Amino acid sequence: MNGETKECILQVKNLSIVFGGLTAVSDFSCELKDGELVGLIGPNGAGKTTVFNILSGLYKPTTGTITFRNREGTLFPVENKTPAALNRIGIARTFQNIRLFGNLSVEDNVRIALHSQREENPIDVLFRLKRFYIDEERITERADGLLELFRILHKKHEPAGSLPYGEQRKLEIARALAAHPSLLLLDEPAAGMNPQETRELMELVSFIRKQFRLTILLIEHDMNMVMGICERLIVLDYGRIIAEGVPANIRKNPAVIKAYLGSEAAALPA
Asked: Were 239 and a residue from 25, 43, 58, 127 both cysteine, which residue would form a disulfide, CB within 3.0 to 4.6 Å?
């Protein structure tokens, strides 16, 4: 990022979570700098989504602390906040399994995520006062702008569940961006996509990072995508960090290669 010093936006210290005696994540620590695009990778069952579930408020950690700095520079301890509270202060996420409102329109899926940005009051809504219509127009314009960015505006009246898989992925990211986050957690955004869709997604993720001034933490199994867009990688295995560094070094790290392939090799496939 042009060699300049970036402020820390997320600091995680000694994070652990235990389910019924089973330690799913152990002593996980990391820092994300403002504007970074970092990959969280590891074999299946390594604990990556569990980390995301903790960072997004779905799980409460057994031990450890999480501190988040919003765009205004305010620091928040976030390990015990609800997903809704975290969303309000600037942390948004997508899910490994798509969670759209399939029966609602594409546009309404994004409009729902914009509810916290509404300005009208209950009286405006009840009596359909002028401010209600002004607010409706503003929210619709904001939603349509996001859909246009993801090239699905022409399908805004269609049920979200009728979209092809790749476009549902895009819609889920658009909905996450509607909350105007400063930290975006992407859980396997390329899952189920073909190579062409994955390449387009790589370009899109890089674009929205700059356009929306985002810090992005990304879980992904597609090594081409991870190596192509991430500045730094954190590698988990059995809930513990086994390596951290730039993609070129991670590819050749013996512990990482063993975790993925189960044997020694020159490097992970590029």
From this structure: 25
- Give tens-digit pLDDT for 117-146: 765 667 766 656 677 667 788 889 999 999
Q: Cα 173–87–244 angle (5° rounding)?
A: 70
Give the total number of structural domains in the chain.
1
Domain coverage including residue 193:
8-100+180-261
pLDDT tens for residues 173-209?
999 999 899 999 999 999 888 888 888 989 999 999 9
Start-to-end CA distance of the chain, whole Å, equals 23
The pTM (predicted TM-score) of the whole model is: 0.90
In this structure, the number of other CB atoms found within 10 A of the CB of residue 133 comes to 12
Q: How far apart are CA 8 and CA 34, in angstroms?
A: 6
* Cα 133 to Cα 33, 92, 136, distances in angstroms: 40, 28, 5
Contacts of 104 (CB under 8 A, 6+ apart): 112, 159, 160
Does the residue 90 lie in any domain? yes
**Assigned domain for 95 exists:** yes
Structural domain includes residue 210: yes
Measured distance CA(24)–CA(16) in Å, rounded: 8
Q: Are strands 63-69 and 22-33 parallel, antiparallel or unpaired?
A: unpaired
* Angstrom distance (rounded) from CA 201 to CA 207: 10
